[in-house]
Amino acid sequence: MAYQKIENVRISGISACVPKTIVSNINSPVFLSAEDASKFISSTGIKERRIASSDICSSDLCYDAAEKLIGDLGWDRKEIDCLVFITQTPDYIVPATSCILQDRLGLSSECYSFDVTLGCSGWVYGVSIIGSLLSTGYFKKGLLLVGETTTKTKSPTDKSTFPLFGDAGTATCMEHSPKAPPMYFHTGTDGSKHQVIYIPDGAFRNPTTLQSLNSEEVEPGVTRNRLQYIMDGGAVFVFSITKPPQSIKILMENAAIANEEIDYYFLHQANKIMVEKICNKLKVPVEKAPTSYELFGNTSMSSIPLTMITSKRRELVNSRLNLIICGFGGGLSWATGNIITDRIVCPELIEI
Amino acid sequence: MMEKFIDHFREALDASEGKEIRLEDRFRDYDEWDSLRYLSVIAMIDSEYDVIIETSEFKKIETVGGLIEEIGKRIKT
């Protein structure tokens, strides 16, 4: 079973950065009518989103988040032993963006750096990856950069994807700490459904051709080309109300944690329907699952740390919190963690 | 179950209380039907009957009666 206990590691700080540009859904031309737009907003809860301009990459959002966090922590950046960058929108196909970030952030040339391609499960996976790397104590400090300019992959004429998503980047600093309470993780994968969230062309299975750029109207209000993101909303919904609650239950049973011990459930912010449905299944009051989808949309793998910063920053800074974190999405891939944060450093949301 | 289901179904569609729903209706032809109503019907069937109908299975169902039949089958097994 994909169940792990990781010891001797603490989260020292979390920061998040979003583009300044706000796009509101109520006036969005993607909807066929104003009534369409207001129905969408009342069901999904997504009022507005942040959109990166063409000169802002995921790595830029993460870079600013990292600079601020490293500064606030007062870390000597030469002491950062490992860097993991998780995105689906890298700077280039080759090389790994983590190498570029190692240089931009002035990290040591001995820093163990690599990229991971995962979607909405990315941040929880990342905490488990850095956690594993730091657990033995050979590496003392690690930097997890997680972010995506997800709106750049969506067709602006696809109402099934475009109005749901927003851009964001985050940084999480972690360190080896023998006194830290253990972290627990449960993870799952179902690659048989990889086409449920999918960009067909542009890599090496289906390289870009002239046909890749042909826009097709799949249904009224849904027009896109083969280099743009396709989401089978129904299949994703069924997955999201099944696997994440199951995974959270498995984790809590294995780690022997009761609902009452958990201060907050930070769930991936797919939208209002999914967050509320998962809470119902877990019999958790919605107040225990803070949200950020209203003003930021679905920010993919950034959504959990972004929600932490925008909804519970003061508590994260001032108190000890017992948290469930759960990310789920493309792959299909899902990951749940139980982490205890103890007065961590959290700069206010950064906007660029 | 039938009458109750029709009430839940009407609610999930966000249709007016007076809307007549018959077993032989092809629900995809309703004015109200769209991708969001679809999600809300799946969610309703899950919360009321503890049954999750996968997209590939849902596509095969055409009528309101067909939905009731599918739920019935799954509750038994």
Derived structural class of chain A: alpha/beta
SSE series of chain A: EEEHEHEHEHEEEEEEEHEHHHEEE
Name given to the CATH architecture of chain A:
3-Layer(aba) Sandwich
What's the assembly state of these chains? Answer: heterodimer
The helical percent of chain B reads 55-70%
Distance between the termini of chain B: 17 Å
**Strand fraction of chain A:** 25-35%
Average pLDDT reading of chain A: 96
Radius of gyration of chain A: 19 Å
Read across the widest sheet of chain A, the strand sequence of neighbours is 6-5-7-8-2-17
Q: How would you explain this protein's 3D organization?
A:
The complex is a heterodimer of chains A (about 350) and B (about 80). Chain A has about 350 residues and is α/β, with parallel strands linked by helices. Chain A has one domain (about 1-350): Peroxisomal Thiolase, Chain A, domain 1. Helices cover about 30% and strands about 25% of the residues of chain A. Chain A is built from eight helices and 17 strands. Chain A is globular and about 55 Å long. The termini of chain A are far apart. The mean pLDDT of chain A is about 95. Chain B is mainly alpha-helical and about 80 residues long. Helices cover about 55% and strands about 0% of the residues of chain B. Chain B has four helices and no strands. Chain B has helices spanning about 1-15, 35-50, 55-60, 65-75. The longest helix of chain B has 15 residues, at about 35-50. The model of chain B has no long low-confidence stretch (mean pLDDT about 90). The interface of A and B includes residues 40, 232 and 280 of A.
